[in-house]
Amino acid sequence: MNKFRFLTAGESHGKCLSAIIEGVPAGLSIDINFINSELARRQQGYGRGDRMKIEQDTVEITSGVRFGKSLGSPITLVVKNRDFESWQKVMSVAPEDITDERAFSTFRPGHADFAGSVKYNQKDLRNVLERSSARKTAIEVAVGAFAKLLLKELGIEGSSKVTQIGSACCAQNFEGEIDVIRGKGDTVGGKFTVTYTNLPVGLGSYVHWDRGIDGRLAQAVMSIPAIKAVEIGTNPLGYCGSQYHDEIFIEDGKITRHSNNAGGIEGGMTNGQDLVISGVMKPIPTMKTSLKTVDAQTLEETEAHFERSDVCAVEACAVVAEARVAWILADEILLKYGGDCIDELKRNYYQ
Amino acid sequence: MNKFRFLTAGESHGKCLSAIIEGVPAGLSIDINFINSELARRQQGYGRGDRMKIEQDTVEITSGVRFGKSLGSPITLVVKNRDFESWQKVMSVAPEDITDERAFSTFRPGHADFAGSVKYNQKDLRNVLERSSARKTAIEVAVGAFAKLLLKELGIEGSSKVTQIGSACCAQNFEGEIDVIRGKGDTVGGKFTVTYTNLPVGLGSYVHWDRGIDGRLAQAVMSIPAIKAVEIGTNPLGYCGSQYHDEIFIEDGKITRHSNNAGGIEGGMTNGQDLVISGVMKPIPTMKTSLKTVDAQTLEETEAHFERSDVCAVEACAVVAEARVAWILADEILLKYGGDCIDELKRNYYQ
Amino acid sequence: MNKFRFLTAGESHGKCLSAIIEGVPAGLSIDINFINSELARRQQGYGRGDRMKIEQDTVEITSGVRFGKSLGSPITLVVKNRDFESWQKVMSVAPEDITDERAFSTFRPGHADFAGSVKYNQKDLRNVLERSSARKTAIEVAVGAFAKLLLKELGIEGSSKVTQIGSACCAQNFEGEIDVIRGKGDTVGGKFTVTYTNLPVGLGSYVHWDRGIDGRLAQAVMSIPAIKAVEIGTNPLGYCGSQYHDEIFIEDGKITRHSNNAGGIEGGMTNGQDLVISGVMKPIPTMKTSLKTVDAQTLEETEAHFERSDVCAVEACAVVAEARVAWILADEILLKYGGDCIDELKRNYYQ
Amino acid sequence: MNKFRFLTAGESHGKCLSAIIEGVPAGLSIDINFINSELARRQQGYGRGDRMKIEQDTVEITSGVRFGKSLGSPITLVVKNRDFESWQKVMSVAPEDITDERAFSTFRPGHADFAGSVKYNQKDLRNVLERSSARKTAIEVAVGAFAKLLLKELGIEGSSKVTQIGSACCAQNFEGEIDVIRGKGDTVGGKFTVTYTNLPVGLGSYVHWDRGIDGRLAQAVMSIPAIKAVEIGTNPLGYCGSQYHDEIFIEDGKITRHSNNAGGIEGGMTNGQDLVISGVMKPIPTMKTSLKTVDAQTLEETEAHFERSDVCAVEACAVVAEARVAWILADEILLKYGGDCIDELKRNYYQ
């Protein structure tokens, strides 16, 4: 992250989520409806719990945009938590409001609870779970929407889709699979794929390990909460070299390919084909079926705490991954083409 | 990369590979034999070509170490190319030595050739392949050896193993598989796993996306040449939540687990279990079986250029991944525990 | 900026200024009154205009703090602009609100107007001046207050004072000087000194140019709007070596000095003496006395636009510098001593 | 440092100094004679000691350049120490060579000795002084020469000059001043100015504190060993606003100025005028006249150790500053204009 840089903040039940983005060129048209539609996409998907209905996230911009155009100055985004009123006391900033209400102390396996409580020296695990919650991905999607607005100016478009839920592959019966799992009080993960089209050749590089766009994308996707595996293009297990590599042809004087096992990346660089990156999400760790665990206070064995949760959030996760890939692409575009305003970027890009 | 930072350099057939590491605490014992033994591990593995025999890499340290101890100042590593003499003219720095000898212009599918030539505006593809070659991983392993020396001071140890070659899984007949593939003039990839033991709880964080150690590790492994997939712990596809998550128990007053599907990472942090990360390598793109491609000069269709190559390099790749994981762990350790000299680090660590 | 990192945002007449700080250890007591008192210090000083009375800045924390303690997660700060109501229309985010009201087009010499309009391709110079205004230093002081809270835990204290206004040195008649200048419709700059006491030995380093704390401090002070010169310790012009360097003595078994020309820094590191850094501020470029300039639209010569302004803001500038020095010190402390929570930091620090 | 990034390494009496530069666009013509002439400039100047004669530094390039052109891959520079033979044993990397020869333990006031020995836990102060020595600026000048080659492609040229030595200002009798000081066995500092011409408008920014080019330049100059003060343009002390700010005129349809007190920077950005930055160097701390100090081993008072040294090194320091300013300018140019090869950079730049 060099030119498109940002920080995000916000607890799951805090007043709001926030982000500041520094590095968006001046003159970019900011379509708030588009940003809100991206937030809505994150909230959809079969298998989500009730909180999604409460939320209906919308973004407010409090700096960096004037009359619908970016100024080049840092952009502040705020997504309010709509049910903050009922959490105001429990999540208060003020020292005098201290309370044990909604404190909890049962390490949930698969969550940040245990390691987080050790690292940050916390007894009330709420002090860990509030930030380790996937709620924070809402503001990440908002940041991604800015990156997507930038990419759209250059004709670059992204999309994502779920390709597997539990044991059900591809276009098969995802909803049925989810219903079965819900019936058991369990949760289920799955796999999704993000695709970006119309990319230029040469984003990323082979010259130094940390310049490889494959590595940067893998970081962005693997660090999404609950992601345990990332693939670029076709998983090569079981292929021979003669089967896997995408041969190169000339058609109408242009370099072309008939396959895209590489997922659009060779040598750590985009090669002009579609960028294809997949992620595998583990089952959500909070579920009705109890897991054995330990109480942080008593150090006695107990069963994991249940908070309202989703059965399956792979679709949301795909939207988050799509947003995060946009971050990296926007940054790589800005590094390669420069430009302090959108016209300068486009001029350099289209030459 | 914040405290343990470095740059590497060097072309495949250039005079030498180099690295400068900044951030190693003072007072670390530098065992050159250990570093050389790591370099030797990278050169082993069934399926490698002849170059490995030429190389016999050894490291020279030209700064930052005195009387066997790090000084705290930047450490320079040099790995000479043993066959440089025969490449001296072709790889000359001097403008007057310019020659077409060993120039080549056929884009090899699966390599950086095409995108690299566009990005860096190169007609002689040697100007791309010399740096995009996996040769550069030799110096990366040397850098990793420094990180491993640091980790060893804290009792942290790493290892790696190949778990699949082509269609042959686990402890099965890797060598047979490789022989079959070699007989066909083809190449084959595979899967490997890196494990680090005795890690502290709380390396990495959930508080911001780029602080997650899972993401940083994924970047380090995915950006190794030819890696297309990365997994942390057990791939969760097909598991329900009640099966996947590692339950928590108390034994002798200590938190313990009976499984490690999480691969030692929950919430983007190490949780005290073994760190387990796997990578999938694609088949080496340079092979005797020709692939259809295009000539960079004539833009006519042709067949891919053959350079001396390996049939299978998964074992080497595992060693590189093990080294790269060490980079990230060393940096995370230094960020978490501070310390300008090894005694200060150890004192903070063991408290 | 590695461990204590942040972004700030906000236009001078926008809805609010914001900042997100990532890297504050968990468990730090957050005293809002202290933060507000720092904001108040920035607004004081003889020679300020009327806006200071309107502002009465106070901070709101919307994330990262619960019951008066930092959580380790990113902290969001918001300072509302109290007169936003009257600017709401002119500073609107919405494209449909576009208006020429309060647009202006006269490049003010000494300001960002000219270069900013070229860089960001802006015709309405308000799109430049709103962010290039020194108003943004209010939120920087709030960020600095967090750094100071951290430093206070370790007994490190900072202060600042004005040492020269125009031609009046030291404890002389600053107010008289300012009154004279105001009478002429002119502006005046001056010099200030920031001092931090009780620092540990060894913050910063000589091992690499960008590790030197002198350089980092110089960046932080020189990039304050209107600062043109920075000094560490005593300006050495006119001293011989035998006069300048601070001799070293032993008193009660402890290393001590009788002078501090070095300003507490030798070899790019703190040496245990007081850190002393000075800045020189130029006269504020907006003044009643007109300056010749050019109109951005017509490219005809004209006279510089006058906006409500201060005659002298050196005292405010000193407070900003004090805050910025705190940023750097907090980051260096965290890099050197590690610690994810305040107890761990203190344990490592006091050993 | 974002796009033009590098690390340097090397002890004063070690085998060699090294640097690796990552981020130089491909296709840049590398003139080794120019680099060596920059190294020679650093070694000149009245008042230098004998070591300068021994050194006659020249650079070797071992990666990243082929047939006189940069490849886009990292460039390795090596400057050998010509008198290494006589230091080989004392500076040996090997643990078995350990010796007390040339060890020393007297903290020299004004040097890194005291703080460095505490920070890195060193008893033999040679382990500190070898890296804290200004010798390392030789390789920094070599890195700067690469940056200058890049800037030259865009017509940007730099120079530097000494403006004061001790009490002798400007074109006055520097050599006489130095001779007097030498006669006393003392040392003397001075002031220098670096100027770059033909810069574009808009390098740097006001949008975030760390984007200001004034701050980045101040860091680069202040962190040079022995620098204690930095000024951009004219020191404003004593000027009123109406006198200081550079009025703007139109001549032949072009924005122009008749003064340059701002030193080419307004609002943290280049404004198209000459960039002017000055530094003040303290007297060299190693001198024949003894300073009172303490022995690191015995903690008894003693007098500072004398090593062969210069009387005055301001001219060398100016060359180092000129090189460091080139680093920052090259990085800012690459950030603003992008470009992976020199043709792409130039096309974007000249539009």
What's the short version?
The structure is a homotetramer of 351-residue chains. Helices cover 30% and strands 23% of the residues of chain A.
Can you put this structure into words, describing what you see?
- 4 copies of one chain form a homotetramer.
- With 351 residues, chain A is of the alpha+beta class.
- Helix content of chain A is 30%, strand content 23%.
- Chain A contains 10 helices and 18 strands.
- The first copy, chain A, has helices spanning 32-43, 51-55, 113-119, 126-132, 137-153, 174-183, 213-222, 241-244, 314-337, 342-350, and strands at 5-9, 16-22, 59-63, 65-66, 69-70, 75-80, 157-165, 168-169, 190-197, 201-204, 227-232, 248-251, 254-257, 265-266, 269-271, 275-281, 292-294, 301-303.
- In chain A, the strands form 6 sheets. A 5-stranded antiparallel sheet of chain A has the order 8-7-9-16-11. A 4-stranded antiparallel sheet of chain A has the order 1-2-6-3, with helices on one face. Chain A has a 3-stranded antiparallel sheet with strand order 10-15-14.
- The longest helix of chain A is centred in the C-terminal third of the chain and has 24 residues, at 314-337.
- The first copy, chain A, starts with a strand and ends with a helix.
- Chains in contact: A-B, A-C, A-D, B-C, B-D, C-D.
- At the C-D interface, α3, α4, α7, β11 and α8 of C face α3, α4, α7, β11 and α8 of D.
